[in-house]
Amino acid sequence: LPDNWVSGINTSDFAALSGSLRKFDRELDRDRLFAGISAKLSDNWSVESNLSYEEKQGHGDVGGGIYIDGASADAALLRSPVDYSTTEVDLGLSYDASKLHLHGQLAYSDFDNDDDTLTWQNPYSNYGPNVSYPSGYGGLGLAPDSEQVSGRLTGHYLFSSTMRLQFDGSYAVASQDQDYLDYTVNEALVVTEPVPANNYDGEVATSIFNTRLMLRPMAKMNAQVFYKLRDRDYDAERDGYLYVRGDGGNQPASKFTVYNTNHDLTSQIAGFEVDYRLPLRSKLSFEYEYEDVERRNAAVEETEEDRYTLGYRIQPWSNFTARMHLQYADRAADTYEWAQSYYALLDAELINATPDNQRYNNHPQLMQYYMANRERWESKLDLTYLPGERWNLNMNLLWQDDDFDKSNLGLTGATWGRLHISASYVASETFSGTVYAGYDVYEGEQTSRAFRGGQEKNAFEIYPPLPQASDPQQNWDLDATDSSTTIGLNLQWLPAKDMELNLDYSFVDTTSEQDYSTPAGSSLVVSDLP
């Protein structure tokens, strides 16, 4: 900050602000070098390898705050440095035969950030002399160096003219062992307990496997049986961190230690699809999927979902095609363990010192929407019309309705509607254009409860007088509507054999509306956001 800076509790107290403002450039520059080679070793075998190196430099922006309680921070919008380099290399081997095709690949990537920390001087004077202007400084750790090693095998096998097997499997290990920063950049603050290790020294292994058996049991019938696996496995020690809150004070007492948490996840999807050809070049299809997701250190250990999809495609004329899609999905969750994140994060000393009825981070009745019970209806209609050999007209309609029928607090319902149209014209072999327009609307319904800490945080009382966290009269409701209108134009021109020119213009206008309300007789005062 400048030498003549005038500090204050609020930004309105910054008397020297207008004279201190200055312009700066905010831009990103990306340079990338790439080399690739491929060779055919024999009639069946081929090999390929790629190497790329990329540097990205410039500035972005990030919000930073100095605080003891993050709800009331001395906040600033900061120019964040970007000085990244990424190296990627892979080696692939392929085998092609009449019935079997295989492609294997090994890959390695390395990300390096030349900057470790972003620091700034505190312009406010809300805290003691060690934290306020001019002595106080805040710091943010920037993206750490990391690397990843992966392998992938894809292929298919043709059993016969009516049976084919496809598969795609990969395994990747991402690791990060950059040295830890100190708990605070402010040397005037008292820190007696060091970080528990030199670095995170952790790995995350991700496995993905997809396979699909395609059959033609009858002349007009096709069938598919499929299985999909996604697994994420953490390998990191669970350490306790007695971190300094927002560079806003001395290191807190040992009971405020927090712990890193592993979030293992396994998702499995199995199902089948059958389609049958009908007159008028039409086809009727049905698909069933069953998904099972298991999570570790989450409020819900397991969710199961059944999805049923009915599809119909018809081409009554050679230049007109219609596709329809109707889906019903029902997701069921295990018992919602609302305290799981609380016990995984905090230290036993603090947990034991907290009353039983206050041991939670999120309100016990607040369901995280991606793990909550949900019923979904979805319908799609896609129309394609070719009025001439140079024209292509398309219209896409979508309507989706989500009902979180077991959620008392949180997202309780959502709908999404979409209408997109486009028209393409091919003037010649070297010139074509597309115009498009679309309208999207999303409506969400949310319920939450306003409450303070201490005795007011008891969410389990049933007899009056009710504390705030137990009182439905403390609820507030939000009806949010986001709408978006899009209009665009794209032109493509090939003035020469080795040259292509593209012109693209898009106009997007979005509107968000948030309407708040409270129950009749509530003492809460709410107002809609502008």
Give a short overview.
With 530 residues, the protein is an all-beta fold. The chain is built from three helices and 23 strands.
Pick out its properties.
3% helix, 3 helices, globular, mainly beta, 530 residues, 19-stranded mixed β-sheet, 23 strands
Walk me through what this model shows.
This protein is an all-beta fold and about 525 residues long. About 5% of the residues lie in helices and about 60% in strands. It has 3 helices and 23 strands. It has helices spanning about 15-20, 340-345, 350, and strands at about 30-40, 45-65, 75-95, 100-115, 115-120, 135-140, 145-160, 165-175, 200-220, 220-235, 240, 260, 265-280, 280-295, 300-315, 320-335, 365, 375-385, 390-405, 410-425, 430-450, 475-495, 500-515. The strands form 3 sheets. The chain has a 19-stranded mixed beta sheet that branches. The mean pLDDT is about 95.
**Strand pairing plus helix content: what structural class?**
mainly beta
Largest sheet: 19 strands, mixed
Give start-end ranges of low-pLDDT stretches.
Answer: none
Helical coverage, percent range: under 10%
Number of E strands: 23
Secondary-structure element order, N to C: HEEEEEEEEEEEEEEEEHHEEEEEEE
Distance between the termini: 33 Å
Q: What coarse outline follows from CA principal-axis ratios?
A: globular
Q: Give the percentage of residues in beta strands.
A: over 45%
DSSP helix count?
A: 3
Rg from Cα: 29 Å
The residue-averaged pLDDT reads 95
Secondary-structure map with pairings?
Blueprint (H helix, E strand, L loop, with lengths): L16 H4 L7 E13 L4 E22 L7 E23 L3 E14 L3 E5 L15 E5 L4 E15 L2 E14 L25 E17 L2 E15 L4 E2 L16 E2 L5 E14 L3 E14 L6 E16 L2 E14 L6 H6 L2 H5 L13 E2 L6 E12 L5 E13 L5 E18 L4 E19 L25 E22 L2 E19 L13
Parallel strand pairs: 17-20
Antiparallel strand pairs: 1-2, 2-3, 3-4, 4-7, 5-6, 7-8, 8-9, 9-10, 10-13, 11-12, 13-14, 14-15, 15-16, 16-18, 18-19, 19-20, 20-21, 21-22, 22-23
